[in-house]
Amino acid sequence: MMRSPWLVALLCAGASLVHPLFGQDDLMGFFDEPTGPQLVTSVFKAGRIINVQSPETSGKGEMNFIIAHRFGRISDGWYDLFGLDNAQMRMGLDYGITDQLQVGIARSGFGKTLEANAKWRFVEQQMGGGSPVSLTAYSVLMRDGLRFPVDGLERKGVHRLSFVNQVVVARKCSPDVSLALIPSLVHRNLVDRADRANDVATLGAGFRYKLNNRLSVNGEYHYLLPRPIEDDYVNSLSLGLDIETGGHVFQLHITNSRGMFERAFLSETSSSWQDGDLYFGFNINRVFQVGQRR
Amino acid sequence: MSYRAFLFFLVMGCGFGAKAQQFATRSAHIAFLSETPLEDIQAESHEASSIFDAATGQIAFQVPILSFHFPKALMEEHFNENYMESEQFPKASFRGTVSGLDTGAQGEQEVTAKGVLEMHGVALEREVKGTMTRSETGWSIVAAFSVPCTDHDIDIPKVVSENIAEIIEVTLSANLEPR
Predict the structure, then answer these.
(1) Mean pLDDT of B145-158
(2) Which sign, positive or negative, has the C-alpha torsion A230, A231, A234, A236?
């Protein structure tokens, strides 16, 4: 009757005495307790994998100036200096309203096209719980500005407009490998031929493989889903290299799409890799911090 | 009965006594500054953890590298991607022992913590000077030290060597409460 409380007391006192000996383990245990999911960042280097959107957006208050060129056909040979004599240019400005929401405008020489676009990463990839992928919505409005289109059709107001909506499902699988799946819907208010559909859907995939901290290999492919009427357009395939130098990201690539806005490269690519009709091109991204981040 | 109660409180007292010697926080503040004639780069984290055992003098800090925030998003990306490689080395830590502390004394005390500073996968023996002040319930700790980038294999390329200092000044402040 008297023994048991003594025994309990002894055991407890013993445990209390031993306790400080376990102090170090105790301290480290404090750090091992889970503290919630961590954001996964830098899934791709620039706002575009090559042509298509990556999940990256400009940070809050960041202005990103993108100047991009696609030269002529490499297969034109010496006469056109492998295409370098003929360049198409796109100039774009992106601005980060928040770290997840970006708006932009751009002008392409190709089709004298003006663009207004918005991009929103509405789900972030997280480690240790949370979403395994990031989801980014991209929407762009394009206005064809050609005065005398080659098809001879007169275009007024809304006839010149086209739209692309897409979702970028991206995942950084390891520090070196990032993948993206990009379904897109293209709508053209007016098409140039009766055998071309107003609406086209594509399913795209892209990747980034880091060679080191400042260099990566990128690629993207867009599969044109079956259309009610077959047109002459082909799937877009691009391969490239991202080079980062401080405030600039240089992207060099080879592609069979010459247009640098979504409607052109997703749904109106006509040169094919099999025929060797490829274009060399680059994007240069330059970032300026114009607004306050915090 | 009173005898048993006495034993009970004695035992409980021992248990609590051991526990009350530990102070901790998960919202310690760590800031750093890279100062060059061209550019000052500052970043801070409010998500550092710290624990201090007053009985043994053991102290430890840990901070997730991704919790450091910069005034420019691009700086933050470069910091994580190019310099700290935060996916490979997600945390920086200091584990050591405080000397020169009188746990019973009031007011600010100059102390030295000797231990191991680990960041970017490189662990180094360091001595860090700081002050500790007994607050009503816990301890407040302030410290400052400098970290040469090369000590921790943090590679800064020539192109940006004029924008990033070779030695980074780190300041730390934490209010630890009984755990």
Answers:
(1) 91
(2) negative
Please give, rounded to a whole number of angstroms, the shortest distance from the CA of A293 to a CA of chain B: 6
Q: What is the pTM of this model?
A: 0.82
**Residue written as token pair 């924008």:** B163
Predicted complex ipTM: 0.77
- pLDDT tens digit sequence for B74-108: 899 999 988 999 988 999 999 999 998 888 888 89
User: Does residue A21 lie in a domain region?
Assistant: no
Is residue A231 domain-resident?
Answer: yes
The residue range of the domain holding B58 is: 22-178
Whether residues B74 and A62 touch (CB distance < 8 A) is answered with: yes
What percent of chain A stands above pLDDT 90?
Answer: 60
The DSSP line for A146-188 is -SS-TT-----GGGGEEEEEEEEEEEE-SSSEEEEEEEEEEEE
For chain A, the domain total comes to 1
Number of domains chain B contains: 1
Instruction: Examine residue A206 and state whether it is found in any structural domain, yes or no.
Output: yes
**Smallest CA–CA separation between A263 and chain B, in Å?**
30
Does residue A19 lie within any of the structural domains?
no
Question: Is A213 close to B82, i.e. CB distance below 8 A?
Answer: yes
